[in-house]
Specification:
By secondary structure, the protein is an alpha+beta fold. It has a domain of 90 residues. Helix content is 25%, strand content 25%. Strand 4 and strand 5 form a beta hairpin. It starts with 10 loop residues before the first helix and ends in an 11-residue tail after the last strand.
């Protein structure tokens, strides 16, 4: 399926993306949909709108400019979620995330010991034999 490269085809998407980057919603917003298919379809349209915005910015801004080939909407992360009351798209501002950063130090928790070997009990002519089971180290190719 071809992507429509007209900005007019995505006016509803641009309206929502503008709201998501506005100060009215400092961390982002969410939109409810009737079902998963509608949420998936609209998420794809939002991605297409950003793609068209990037293409337009390659024509508007000269090469080397910070906005050449980029979109102001690239700071939005779009996630599809199913909650108890239906399907939602979350438009989250990446620049609103908060992190706790600490330097790398020695591990706080000890490393896990290697897994214990697995054994199988095989009965052979009335005798029980304990045989070690080794994981397969490589994949076999099918030969027809």
């Amino acid at each position: 399926m071809a992507i429509n490269l007209s900005r007019l085809a995505y006016s509803d998407c641009y309206d929502l993306l503008e709201k998501a980057i506005s100060n009215e919603y400092p961390t982002g917003l969410k939109v409810q949909f009737a079902n998963e298919n509608e949420a998936t379809h609209f998420r794809q349209r939002l991605h297409n709108a950003r793609y068209v915005d990037r293409l337009d910015n390659t024509k508007v801004y000269p090469e080397g400019h910070p906005m050449h080939g980029r979109s102001v909407y690239d700071v939005i992360n779009i996630r599809k979620r199913q909650l108890t009351d239906g399907w939602w798209l979350r438009l989250e501002r990446v620049d609103a995330r908060q992190f706790t950063i600490v330097p790398l130090e020695e591990p706080e928790a000890p490393m896990l010991p290697p897994p214990a070997p697995v054994h199988a009990v095989v009965t052979d002519g009335g005798m029980n034999l304990v045989v070690p089971v080794h994981p397969i180290q490589h994949r076999f190719k099918r030969r027809f």
